[in-house]
Description:
Layout (H helix, E strand, L loop, with lengths): L3 H98 L3 H12 L11 E5 L1 H6 L1 H10 L7 E5 L7 E6 L4 E6 H27 L2
Parallel strand pairs: 1-2
Antiparallel strand pairs: 1-3, 3-4
Helix pairs in contact: 1-5, 2-4
Amino acid sequence: MVTIEQKLTLFSKLLNQDIKEEVDKKFKELDKEYEKKIAENKFAIDKEASKIVEQARKRAEIKKVELISKGRLARKKEIMMIKEQLIARFMNALEDKIKTFTTSNDYKTYLNKTIQGLKGLKDNENDLVIQITKFDYEHHKEWIQEAFVKGGLKADKLSFEIIAEDILGGFIIKDLVFSTRIDESIRALLEEEKYRIIERISLAIGEVGEETHE
């Protein structure tokens, strides 16, 4: 006959076995759950890391583009500055040559052709003021007047004055009746040609720049 003590011992063993199985089961479930969480966290971390790497790559690409753009802009500014300096130097040198030209016999030929080309003033009856440089007033005034008279104008309708503006050479005609102004100065001619001069210098600088980068 099984004693109470034996029954208690058996019950205790069964109870311990059930508890052990339950504990083992719980631990296995916990292990699976943590493995799942670790896998999920690893995926999230890898995803975040990839995102950070991609953002860093994009920032680096943007920075690269910015640096290239800044470099190109700096080069354009440098070329523009060189262009402006060359244009200024060329125009100054050209003005010096023009001033030398206005003291030569070729200048008188130039003035004569310019005056003879003013066909619209032939037989003009209005009073005209001829504005010329100080040099021309002192050295060529009588000759210029004769050239205008040969062109069909009356001497008593012409008066001469020294112009305050730096017209380099040539002359400006003012009609006192109609308040009109005909600018035949070398300065006006130079201004007309200035854009063509700038274009030529720009093309020359562009060609040099292309050769430098080949």
